[in-house]
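ingest -> fold -> write
write: protein_1
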Amino acid sequence: MRLVHRVRLDAGGDTAAPGGAVTGALCGHWKHDGPCRWPHSTRAIERGGALVLDITVDCPPADEDDVRRRVAAALAAGEITGPDDRRTTWELVR
């Protein structure tokens, strides 16, 4: 399954942070033991003042709604603190 979302990072934000939020939503934390329940990848591309997140998730069709909700909620939250204790915030562009 492929999902595409756009976010606007606040000044100085880490472009990898929204991808970390997606991993946290799907796996419980970006740093986790064992394989991902839903293997995924997030590619972030800067375009037109926003960050376009191209997210690919391998999940059974029965899990697609749950995965979509988790990803949307993580990105709507608009923040994450990374492993370096640096907080990055963003706005989800609808």
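write: protein_2
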Amino acid sequence: MNDRRRESLEHEHRPEAIERRLREPSRAQLIPDAILGGIDGCVTTFAVVSGAFGAGFSATVALVLGVANLLADGFSMAISNYEAIQAQREHVEGVRRSENHHIDMVPEGEREEIRQIFQRKGLAGETLERVVETICSNREIWVETMVAEEHGLRSEGLSPLKSALATFVAFLVVGAMPLLPYAIPGLDITRQFLSSLAVAGLMFFLIGMGKSLVYHQPVMKSGLRTLLIGGAAAGLAFLTGHLAQALFGVGM
């Protein structure tokens, strides 16, 4: 096993493999977008289903409310994510313009910032001066280094449209799963709810497992953690619906 792993790592770190990997656009941002959309979609629709069941609504009402929330909340969440990523990109661009201006106005001060940044990384003497000279000889590299090292910002992989689409698609696909039992004829409302509960639990667990594979976390721990979070949200919605029925007579 270790030999195969070592061989795989050596293959991934060949010069041509590294070059190919670095040329590919970053997809790191889309993974958390999809995870967030999937979890929120499943929580949203199953919360509606749970609230409707707790309030005593019919299966038709639960399905209509679930679909309406699925589309409206999914679109709202995608737009919100788009605006957030766009704002982040605009912030990076603003910092980049500011650093360009600083280089024009106080180049020696900006050069000293580069020197101290890499000095803190352990470089010194002639090696440090060569690094400073190399970076400051290229305006674009100079600015990007300041943006990343001084401000801790990055713009690579930030695509508002792709992030919004990843969120929306994950929200719709995963969020639709708890509604499927309500579209099956012949099931009474209790069985529909229990089937929806099982599907939602499976979705939460699978999302957690998928997240663990991407971020190299313990599979069972991540799956159970996501399941508990989703279950807590659904339980709160069921309790709210049940209390609404009891206190205000809401229900069918």
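write: annotation protein_2
Residues 16 and 22 are 10 Å apart (CA to CA).
The chain has one domain: 28-239.
pipeline exit 0
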